[in-house]
Amino acid sequence: MHQQALDKVNAAARHPDAQAGFVRQLDLRIAHHLSQLSPAPARLVEAARDAMGSGKRLRPYLLHLVAGDAADGDAVLDMAVALEMVHTASLIVDDLPSMDNALLRRGRPTTHARFGEATAILTAIGLLNHAISIANGLNGMDDGQRGALVSILSGVMGWQGLVAGQELDLNGFSDADGADDALDRITRINALKTGALLCAAVEAGAILGGREDGKRSLLRRFGEDLGQAFQIADDLIDMLSDSAATGKDCQKDVGKETYLAVYGADEALRRCRALLASADEALVGAGLSPDPFRCMIDAIFTPMLDRVPQAAPKAGAAR
Amino acid sequence: MHQQALDKVNAAARHPDAQAGFVRQLDLRIAHHLSQLSPAPARLVEAARDAMGSGKRLRPYLLHLVAGDAADGDAVLDMAVALEMVHTASLIVDDLPSMDNALLRRGRPTTHARFGEATAILTAIGLLNHAISIANGLNGMDDGQRGALVSILSGVMGWQGLVAGQELDLNGFSDADGADDALDRITRINALKTGALLCAAVEAGAILGGREDGKRSLLRRFGEDLGQAFQIADDLIDMLSDSAATGKDCQKDVGKETYLAVYGADEALRRCRALLASADEALVGAGLSPDPFRCMIDAIFTPMLDRVPQAAPKAGAAR
User: Fold this and answer.
1) Which of A6, A129, A132, B231 is the right S-S partner for B158, CB 3.0 to 4.6 Å?
2) d(C-alpha A50, C-alpha A113), whole Å
3) Chain B contacts of A90, Cβ < 8 Å?
């Protein structure tokens, strides 16, 4: 085999190890931060540990990749923990009885199912605040960087982030929200609910890695496209799978206005692939070495999209 | 009348006007910040406006008094809005069906009663995040001050603040929380649920007013004592009043471990007055002009404590 091709194979084989190595470090850092919560009430700490105990760690790894090897490793790990706390808080909130009313997440009982609704809400708020305090207390940053990282976190959960996406997803658009066509509504909800946190990971990584400002809009497009693609793949899985396969409550989206529901599974699959191609193009344009990103994205999307039958049923038929 | 005595009477008469003047400015600043929330979903903005529409504005005024006239007026107003947002968010959360299940607050339907539980939770989280972003974006601060103000806000709502107090209040202390006697448990819950936000107002005021570090522990004691006193007075009112008089659901504390329930109303009244005296002493010790504080505190506590009959029934009798 040609040496260049061999290098490529070896590099591809190294990436999953690199990701697993990062996740091991991250899990240790998460445990460290959670051990600092005492003297918080023991039940809250237990609920936080339980909720943070597993996950794909996609956003932290994305942050790590964008930050690159030149970034301060400790700051990257701390900020990765903060992002994962915000992500976990958003899942706890989404799963609540008054929202998606889900009892399973990552194959285990959701936080409210195990600890009760009140403790779940308080744990989510505690995690959000702790994420802010981690970013606000980062060492080795200049104050402008620290302020920007705090701003990313408070923005992603706020009025123009996850909270807005969840409100629109649950209660729909009012006239004042001005979204007349389905594609606009779907794209906005996906951007707020999924894209915002991926963009936050990418933007925080760009700050920590000192990426030049000119590349940031391309990195942002990468995060946005990835978010849209991820949500479409998630909707496909929700329709086609059962809880045993995904580890969370499925067919929760029946009757919801999703890309899948409006355009059918074939078109959703096509759109998902086009978004991934666009994300890849943005990544290459931003000058980042694409291989580890591609490896991570393949590892997420291939098992999701492989489950979709070639001649998938139109979503309308399933409603 | 002696000139000095006359000055004192005039000064006392000026304080309520000064408070009302500050509250008018604050309400305009609140409206300004809420007008910046768009393009957040219209229902969320409406719920935030509704929740922030009224209130005693005690914490903002306390911040303003501690900051003093030398502080930057704009920064004080912005930080006062941030504190009121955190306070409002905590009330929305406390009132939820899974917590105190209250339908009335400040004489009007609670946020979840009017907008539904999901929107109420999302509004509370949105307000918390917005408070952080206000503090993080304050002009005219050096970066150390801005970081300290962000830290105060994320701390007050977090694991060692309101979230912890609410968890302990709802679900009690576990063995690991180590609080063996009733007075310790009651004092800790009151400190977390009520004292934390008053201390946050005082500490933020001290930062904005450039108060010397040596005075801050006395100012903190002032906030803590005031918080304990306030909670005891609130418990007395809860037991003795009806909703028409207080504008919120009453007799919610029946069966709860409060200072009133354990020690009876006479002792609760005595303790409340002793705490107010201790708060006053700390204030004078910190070198702040006490008159406007006394005027504000009298205006809050006199109507509350005057409702308590001289020979108040023991709380045990009401259980």
Assistant:
1) A129
2) 12
3) none
CA distances A188 to A181, A182, A237, B122, Å, are 11, 10, 20, 17
Question: Contacts of residue A44 in chain B, CB cutoff 8 Å?
Answer: 159, 163-164, 167
How many whole angstroms separate alpha carbon A280 and alpha carbon A263? 24
Instruction: Give tens-digit pLDDT for B178-229.
Output: 878 899 999 999 999 999 999 999 999 999 999 988 888 999 999 999 999 9
Check if the beta carbon of residue A54 is closer than 8 Å to that of residue A247.
no
Which of A44, A137, A171 shows the shortest C-beta gap to B159?
A: A44
Residues in a beta bridge with A109 = A104
CA distance B290 to A272: 65
Domains and CATH numbers, chain B: 3-318 (1.10.600.10)
Q: Which residues pair with A105 in a beta bridge?
A: A108
Asked whether the predicted pLDDT for residue A317 surpasses 50, the reply is: no
Residues from chain B contacting residue A166 (CB–CB below 8 Å): 118, 122
**Count of helix runs (H) and strand runs (E) in chain B:** 16, 2
Tens digits of residue pLDDT in B107-164? 899 999 999 999 999 999 999 999 999 999 998 888 789 999 999 999 999 898 999 9
Query: Is A184 within 8 Å of chain B by CB?
Result: no
Secondary structure class of B253 (helix, strand, coil): coil
Q: What's the average model confidence in pLDDT over A263-285?
A: 94
Within 10 Å of residue B87's Cβ, how many Cβ atoms?
A: 26
CA distance A21 to chain B (A): 30
Q: Please report the sign of the dihedral spanned by the C-alpha atoms of residue B143, residue B144, residue B146, residue B150.
A: positive
**ipTM associated with this complex:** 0.89
Assess whether the previous peptide bond of B39 is cis (omega < 30° from 0).
Answer: yes
Chain B CB within 8 Å of residue A139 CB: no
Helix (H) or strand (E) holding B58: helix B58-67
